[in-house]
Amino acid sequence: MAGGRTNVVFGAGNPNARLMFIGEAPGRDEDIQGVPFVGRSGQLLNKILEAAGIERDDVYIANIIKCRPPNNRTPLTNEIEACIPYLGRQVALIAPRVICTLGLPATQTLLGIRGSMGSLRGKMYVEGDVKVIPTYHPAAALRDPKYKRPIWDDIQLIKREYVKA
Ligand code: URA
What we know:
Layout: E1 11-13, E2 19-23, H1 28-33, H2 40-52, E3 60-63, H3 77-94, E4 98-102, H4 104-111, H5 117-120, E5 125-127, E6 130-135, H6 138-143, H7 148-164
Parallel strand pairs: 2-3, 2-4, 4-6
Antiparallel strand pairs: 1-3, 5-6
This protein binds uracil.
């Protein structure tokens, strides 16, 4: 399952973060550097955070899958299941107040519900002490700029909750 990887990409950021981002899986650049969201999606995420006045150094960033899937394909259910205990430990240790899930696999995994990104985003899901706010993956906005606006709207909601947290 993890055979093709160069590095395990566990997560990066502030271990005391009140805000955590959870993406899908490492891509090529992340696999090489061992750090999440350093490639094109990461650069767009950096721009979005900067525009929203959120310091990347203040947040924690992880993925549901810790190893790059071959050819960047969508993670398989058994891969997600294999990595879930690590993600669970990470969330427990960081204990963020707000989690932003980036894209459908992360959103469905965290919330344990099905649905399209369009139907799941734009809302806040209260899970115990944590507020989960899903948005589109930055890669979606790289493919089609129409996703920039909803991502921006969701980031405003995230910022509001983060400032309060
Ligand atoms: N896409 C993700 O979901 N995670 C990364 O770390 C990089 C790209």
